Amino acid sequence: ASTTTKQYFFDIAEGFVTIPEGARYGVHEANWQRLAQVEPAARRFILKSPDWTHVFFWKHVVERFVSGYLDKVVHDCGNNEVITPNLAISFYNQFGFSCEKHTDFEAFIGFMETVPKYEGHFHSQTPLCSIGKYPVTDSIKADEHLDSRLEELSKKLGAEHPPKQEKTKKHSTDAKSKMVNLLKGRPDLVGRIVDMFHEDCEKIPEACDVKDLLAAIA
After folding, report:
1. Which of 4, 51, 150, 202 has its Cβ near the most Cβ atoms within 10 Å?
2. Buried/exposed 159-193: b ≥16 CB within 10 Å, e otherwise
3. How far apart are CA 175 and CA 64, in angstroms?
């Protein structure tokens, strides 16, 4: 979802954001002006002013956790002999993470239940975005319907909406299928994952609604 949303804002930026030549990670390496780079007084004004559009993108907590596990654990452990500092999962080395012990899904859940703090890929979403502290004008769920929601945002912003990204829609559908396969017959694992993200559940109850998921894995 982060790639999709960054690509969206890059596409509607009308040339104000550029990607350096030879960039390996595309829009992730663009010259974005981040909020932390804005002068403090202006930053406070932007965060509190209703004249600015404040968009909060969020994912269902179970889908997000599974996506992170498949990408940062299964993929990176399977493609790297050593977990080097440039890999996100290396953050957890300090707490005893190892590919040998924790690539199994249930073992990884058990490990994450013991970790005292998380990096961005597994951190609760709401505190990362200071939800509840500053106003949010648009709360957008990142799922297989993300493009239609971005189209509505384009109308609000008065921007020409970029072409649909079919690859993104397929990726989202595949991710849900993999999630169901991993959790088939294991509703207990669903509950354990949700419990790790109680902050998100309190502020975005929909992010923790597992009714449809439980039906799918029954």
Report:
1. 150
2. bebbeebeebbebbeebbebbeebbeeeeebbebb
3. 9
Average pLDDT for runs of 10 along the chain of length 218? 90 93 92 92 91 94 96 96 94 97 97 96 94 91 93 95 69 77 96 97 97 96
In 17-31, which positions are buried (b, 16+ CB within 10 angstroms) versus exposed (e)? beeeeeeeeebeebe
* Amino acid at residue number 202: E
How many residues appear in the chain?
Answer: 218
User: In terms of DSSP H, where are the helices of 34-94?
Assistant: 40-48, 61-68, 76-79
Q: Euclidean distance between the first and final Cα of the chain, in Å?
A: 27
pLDDT at 170: 52
Residue 45 to residue 9: CA distance in whole angstroms: 22
Taking Cα atoms as reference points, which of 214, 208, 176 lies closest to residue 195? 208
Pair 196, 186: CB distance under 8 Å = no
Residue 177 tokens read as: 């299928």
Q: What is the pLDDT of residue 168?
A: 53
Threshold 0.85, pTM exceeds = yes
